[in-house]
Amino acid sequence: MQKDSLWLAVLGEIELSVSRGNYVTWFKNTQLIKHDSESTVIAVANVFIKQQLERKYSDLISETLRKNNIISDKLEFKITAQAGVPRRTKDDEQVTITSAAETPQYREPQAAMPIKAAGNNFSHSYRQGINERYTFDTFIVGSGNELAFAACQSIAQSPGNKYNPLFLYGGAGIGKTHLIQAVGNATLARNPGAKVLYITTEQFVQEFVDALRFRKTADFASYYRTADVLIVDDIQFIAGKEKMQEEFFHTFNAIHQGNRQIIISSDKPPKEIPTLEERLRSRFAWGMSIDMQNPDFETRCAIVQTKAQTHNIVLPNDVVDYLAMNIQTNIRELEGALNQLLAFCEMRSLDPSLSIVTNMLGVNKTRPKHLSAKQIIERTAKHFQIPMEDILGPKRDKDIVVPRQIAMYILRSELHLSFPKIARELGRKDHTTAIHSVEKIEKESRLDASLRSTISEIKERLYA
Amino acid sequence: MKLQVTQENLNRALSSVARVATSKNSLPILSNVLVKTSDNRLSLSATNLDIGITHYIGAKVSEEGSITVPARLMQDFVSSLPAGIINLDLAETKLKVTTDQYQSVVNGIVADDFPVMPAIANGKTWEVPGALLKKALQQVVFAASNDETRPVLTAVILHTFEGHLYMATTDSYRLAEKDLGPNTEDVTLLIPASALQDLLRILGDTTDPVRVTHDDQQVLFQVGDVELVTRLIEGKYPDYRKLIPQSFATQATLKRADLVNVTKVSSLFARESAGSVTIEVDEASGNLSIRSVASQLGENNANATASVIGSGSITLNSRYLLDGLNALSGETVTFGFNGKLEPTLLTDAKAPDYRHVVMPLKG
Predict the structure, then answer these.
(1) Computed from CA positions of residues B304, B171, B196, B190, in that sequence, does the dihedral angle turn out positive or negative?
(2) pLDDT tens across B100-131, in order?
């Protein structure tokens, strides 16, 4: 099995460097029979393929094998009947399922068994990193995340089948980790033998570095490449790490080729992750990319209520509304505020009420008053690298207008300034300009992830 | 590459190789035919990676070279040219084909990407008369299975048994075996039936001996100027000889044409019932009767005179029966069977080198 997945990784790479027709004809149904320092033996279906591979592709194959840490003196091809039989693909199996009512069975994974082969230096069990607390049941579905939720559920039903890879992106604390962990939990519930690996990119990098240091890269590769479901959190941290990107590329190929599932989360869409290699970028965008939106007001209310319920407390509606209204973007923060409220009430044996929560959040809301309109405008101008005079001046070029509008939006959302005041701060005469700008940015930021991340970056700098 | 060749030769070569070049394959070059000069001859080759065919023809070569060109186009084009001299002239990947009347340019693909025809280095070589091989193929190949899930049964087995060379096929419902006479080589080859169908086409009316060369992975047939190479199927062929009945409770010998006729007529009424016809043999009356019933259409009873030993009845698929009867070519046929579920054997006493077994239908 280890051989299979290694070979799949090799094939995945070869597929990229030869034409489709050549790949299908010469490489598709080949298998790796054995590899050691002496020789690598590859099974092929017939003598035509054998001769063609020997004549035209042996260099390519040896080189790709070398990249995958298979180094042998000789490369041999052997004709076997077995190699001619195409690997059973998912489609084949679906044909044989007669009853449409039946949900597709979880495919017996090719690589499920040989845990020993993977070596014990990776001390994870098969359910690496999966926290049982995160399930679909406790996930609250709202308009911003219903698509992601549906996709994840469908993946948990039959991993590797559709939406492969699944790429979830969105801001901090809106439930990405919860959802992707829930896929892991649901998959394990359906098939306890599945190899479900959850790993943050940071951990992944760390383990890879260790593997390099202790010369265990082959073990590292085979461990991750044989996962049935590989969940990688916060992939944006892979940016700029070239060797890591290469390793992840091979892992990705091996898993994807084997019709096994890959789930990736990130805080921005693939095309906005800086210094991400093009081949990874295109692969991430290959299956399904879903933008997870900030929860809307109703969803936030539902979240507050559900969380309170788990503590066996029913909150008055006005308290729920207040919490949901005041903490808009980050569910983690929302949960924190709720926990703080509940702890406060419990300690003093009070019932949660609007006055308590207002008091508390008033304190909690550390959004500093000392932030001035000027600072905001300065920060925004600096972010876009335009001079203050321009943003305050009369210019109407697009690259000035957008930062100006963003500045207005931030003034409104952070300092709650009135529209006429916002207009004045930016040297505009008419307050309707400010109204239009704020509305525009509000609307666009809901659709445009990059705009959203720009705004949050500016905000972060402001409070930093 | 620059040469002259006659239209007749080129057309003949194209028609024997072009069929193998399939457009089904995802690799474009495999729908091409390789045109190559070698030793003052011209070779045309095509392959579908299961079999490869090369046809050599005489040509007046003034410049060596090779190119691959679309098989279909080339064949259609050359076959519609008038008889006479054709000039082939290659510039880069464009093959100029000129005759007195026509000037065409066919865009090709460089020959370097074309798969190499496998050579058999350390093989055994023996010969078999062309006419005999052809007859055997006609009698045997059709009974091979086309169920790819049991690859062994899609093969024709060519093997030596007690000093004779035998060719046999079975799809597990019927079985055909031909004795090709004494053979000194000890061989067991499982050859894909589809490849042998192509060989049958190539054999034509040849009376020359066919050279067979094989190792344990492939077999090469040389028929005059044509070479056909195919992979061998791996596996162990079932011991089919055990299935051929040796003695019979009931046996009828009659004119083959008579049995063919009554079976054909009966099969008309057997279309609903998967071709099921029931044959009854009665020793007392020396009669063979065949019956088929179609609930919608009606029913049929037909009789033929036969010399009979023992009485009994058996139900067969009329299509298999007809195939078997057509594979036999003699005047008479001997029809022998035992119980209702036992195999039935068709033979011709005058040509004991061919045996055909048909399994009965249940109930």
Answers:
(1) negative
(2) 888 999 999 998 888 888 888 888 898 999 99
Q: Is B22 helix (H, G, I), strand (E, B) or coil?
A: coil
Please name the residue of chain A whose CA is at the shortest distance from the CA of residue B216: A79
Q: Which domain holds residue B313?
A: 245-358
Q: What share of chain A is helix, strand, coil (3-state, %, to 5)?
A: 55, 10, 35
A46/B235 touch (CB, cutoff 8 Å), yes or no: no
- Rounded CA gap, B361 and B343, in Å? 10
Q: What is the pLDDT of residues B206-227, one digit of tens each?
A: 888 999 999 888 899 999 899 9
Pair (B317, B353) in one structural domain: yes
Spell out which residues of chain A touch residue B47, defining contact as CB-CB under 8 Å. 48
Full-model pTM: 0.54
Percent of chain A whose predicted confidence (pLDDT) is above 70: 87
Backbone angles phi, psi at B274, to 5 degrees: 55, 40
Q: Is the pLDDT of residue A94 over 60?
A: no
Q: Cβ B52–A48 below 8 Å, yes or no?
A: yes
Backbone phi and psi for residue A122, each to the nearest 5 degrees, phi listed first? -100, 105
Of the residues B220, B242, B264, which one is the last residue of a structural domain? Answer: B242
Judged by CB atoms closer than 8 Å, whether chains meet at A51 and B30 is answered as no
- The answer on B268 and B213 residing in a single domain is no
Contact between A159 and A259 under an 8 Å Cβ cutoff? The reply is no
B181 touches chain A (CB under 8 A): no
Strands (DSSP E) found in B225-353: 226-231, 250-255, 276-282, 287-294, 298-305, 307-309, 312-317, 332-337, 344-347
The answer to whether the CB of A3 falls within 8 A of the CB of A34 is yes
- Tokens 């139900």, located at residue: B315
CB–CB of A81 and B151 under 8 A?
A: yes
Residue of B nearest to A21 (CA): B27
Closest residue, chain A, to B28 (C-alpha): A21
Number of domains in chain B: 3
